[in-house]
Amino acid sequence: MTQSTLKTAVVYHSGYGHTKRLAEVVAEGASALLIAIDAEGNISQDAWDALDDADAIIFGSPTYMGGPSWQFKKFADTSSKPWFEEKWKHKVFGGFTNSASVNGDKLNTLQYFALLAGQHGGVWVSLAMKPANVKASKRDDLNRMGSYIGPMAQCDADAAPNEMSQGDLETARLYGVRVAEIASRFAPAQTA
């Protein structure tokens, strides 16, 4: 299966535009459909159908108060409908997050996503990128947050989305590429 025939969806909530920017670069890397969770925690029926039909689903949310936004949690709770029918079983999953603080408890958000994927019977894709953790490391290096489970980004609370670290954005884009690559190994071969 090629990346062009692979169906990948990035479903995300963004409060201030930073997570939206990450979602866009993840989707670019994965050649994925973007599905925005609205301010009330909802997505359309067409979006639910696209998730059911996808080979891979990538979750995204800012980290607020040590976990995903309440809008993402509402989406996750509503995903009990496809869970009950095992519609997402055997899909490939990934996830990413952003916060204003360097730590910001982002790991909790990624663990939440991995657990949600596990509850759906899915396969989680790790970042597979070594961290930038030496004295010579810079703000725009790849994986400067040192994550292994999925991309983490940091943007100061008073910074606009266009001021995000290029290293964080490129880390997210490369993760989208990786999720699509792994999903292509699991997806059934397409016959003409």
UniProtKB/TrEMBL annotation:
<dbReference type="GO" id="GO:0010181">
    <property type="term" value="F:FMN binding"/>
</dbReference>
<dbReference type="GO" id="GO:0016020">
    <property type="term" value="C:membrane"/>
</dbReference>
<dbReference type="InterPro" id="IPR008254">
    <property type="entry name" value="Flavodoxin/NO_synth"/>
</dbReference>
<keyword id="KW-0285">Flavoprotein</keyword>
<dbReference type="GO" id="GO:0009055">
    <property type="term" value="F:electron transfer activity"/>
</dbReference>
<dbReference type="GO" id="GO:0003955">
    <property type="term" value="F:NAD(P)H dehydrogenase (quinone) activity"/>
</dbReference>
<dbReference type="Pfam" id="PF03358">
    <property type="entry name" value="FMN_red"/>
</dbReference>
<feature type="domain" description="Flavodoxin-like">
    <location>
        <begin position="8"/>
        <end position="153"/>
    </location>
</feature>
<dbReference type="InterPro" id="IPR029039">
    <property type="entry name" value="Flavoprotein-like_sf"/>
</dbReference>
<keyword id="KW-0288">FMN</keyword>
<dbReference type="InterPro" id="IPR005025">
    <property type="entry name" value="FMN_Rdtase-like_dom"/>
</dbReference>
<dbReference type="InterPro" id="IPR001226">
    <property type="entry name" value="Flavodoxin_CS"/>
</dbReference>
<protein>
    <submittedName>
        <fullName>Flavodoxin family protein</fullName>
    </submittedName>
</protein>
